[in-house]
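Inverse folding, one chain.
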């Protein structure tokens, strides 16, 4: 299996984000996946009027996405969908029309929730966007991580062994998915 660069987009930008803690825990679980969080906080709202002369932050973000072999999305659920900041990042990366940085990149989605529902709505809503973006999304195993405050210690370290084992299985499957779909 080849070394693959995986861009990780975290849908929560708050300090102490459980989605970020989960993403950080996942990043070291597969030796062939070189994971790097690509920040989205700095992206101003997408405005088509700026496409001819895009902000530097947009250019840097698009270049960072293009440099990746695959994308891992780790997101909480806001109002049965993805947070606005993640949707904005998706829009910035997909434009101008016909020049999407996302096109053809294998993807995986992990949704998180402080409650028991585990972000099912956000997970599936994001997958709808991935279809349009031409990002083959890994279908199995699905990953919904609920009750996230109980998974981490005060320093943000994952302490739930069963969750770690599941995430290991997920990342192993993602590595296989990347190999199967990256050459398309």
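Residues assigned per position:
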């Amino acid at each position: 299996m080849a070394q693959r660069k995986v861009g990780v987009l975290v849908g929560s930008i708050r300090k102490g984000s459980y989605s970020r803690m989960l993403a950080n825990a996942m990043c070291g679980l597969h030796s062939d996946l070189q994971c790097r969080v690509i920040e989205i906080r700095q992206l101003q709202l997408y405005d088509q009027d700026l496409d001819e002369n895009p902000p530097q932050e947009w250019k840097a973000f698009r270049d960072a996405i293009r440099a990746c072999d695959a994308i891992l999305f780790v997101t909480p659920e806001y109002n049965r969908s993805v947070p606005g900041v993640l949707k904005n990042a998706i829009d910035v990366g997909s434009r101008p029309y016909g020049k999407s940085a996302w096109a053809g990149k294998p993807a995986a989605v992990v949704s998180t929730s402080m409650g028991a529902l585990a972000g099912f709505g956000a997970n599936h809503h994001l997958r709808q966007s991935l279809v349009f973006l031409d990002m083959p999304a890994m279908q199995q195993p699905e990953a919904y991580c609920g009750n996230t405050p109980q998974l981490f210690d005060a320093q943000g370290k994952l302490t739930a062994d069963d969750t770690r084992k599941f995430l290991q299985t997920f990342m192993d499957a993602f590595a296989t998915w990347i190999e199967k779909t990256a050459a398309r």
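The domain at 4-47+54-181 is CATH 3.40.50.360 (Rossmann fold). Strands lie at 4-10, 33-37, 70-76, 107-112, 143-145.
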